[in-house]
Amino acid sequence: MSTEKVLHEDVQENAVLESLGYQQELKRSFGLLGMIGFSFSIVTSWTALGGVLIIGVESGGPPVMIYSWLAICLFSLAVAYAMAEICSAYPVAGGQYSWVAVLAPPSVARGLSYVTGWFMITEPDLM
Questions:
Q1: 8 A C-beta contact, residue 57 and residue 65
Q2: Taking the mean position of all CA atoms in its chain, how far away is CA 90?
Q3: Which of 12, 35, 56, 125 has its CA 20 to 30 A from that of 91?
Q4: Terminal-to-terminal C-alpha distance of the chain
Q5: Residue 44 backbone phi and psi in degrees, to 5
Q6: What does the pLDDT read at residue 49?
Q7: Among 74, 121, 75, which residue's Cα sits nearest to residue 95?
Q8: Is 100 within 8 Å of 112 (Cβ atoms)?
Q9: What are the pLDDT digits (tens) for 63-105?
Q10: What are the DSSP calls for 4-66, one per residue?
Q11: What is residue 79's DSSP assignment?
Q12: Of 126, 102, 124, which Cα lies nearest the Cα of 113?
């Protein structure tokens, strides 16, 4: 029974991709542990946090560090949830520049998509 459900969802996902003008070429088989490991390898939050500890200690000590870290986590989650919603609506491999091309007004979509692509290439910390 679970095989039928997986096959049914896969067919539905392929239909969504075809409606966007794409064909599925890669396997989507990440599990929970794989996604957690992949996200930590991209974000590298612990190594980035290590370089900022001195500033936090000099600015206000542990309370400032803890509360600012919690606030930053909340804002980062808000951005992640918004991007996850867009990703679920437009599941394309290009990411942000493909979303900009689809969602921006047609008169500026090409230029904004180009700029977004350059931001993704030159400044990965911005996206």
A1: yes
A2: 12
A3: 125
A4: 40
A5: 45, 50
A6: 65
A7: 121
A8: yes
A9: 887 888 889 889 988 988 988 888 888 888 778 888 898 899 9
A10: HHHHHHHHHHHHHHHHTT----S-----HHHHHHHHHHHH-HHHHHHHHHHHHHHHT-HHHHH
A11: H
A12: 102
Q: Which two tokens stand for residue 51?
A: 């370089």
Question: Any idea of the CA torsion for 10, 12, 18, 20, to the nearest 10 degrees?
Answer: -110
Report the C-alpha gap between 104 and 96 in whole angstroms: 11
Contacts 24+ apart (CB under 8 A), 67-71: none
Give dist(CA 79, CA 105) in Å, integer.
22
Token pair 């980035």 is at which residue? 48
Tokens of 101: 């091309």
Taken as a whole, the chain contains a residue count of 127
* One-letter identity of residue 120: M
Query: Both tokens of residue 64?
Result: 């400032």
Tokens coding 40: 């930590």
Residues in contact with 86: Cβ distance below 8 Å, sequence separation at least 6, in sequence order: 99, 103
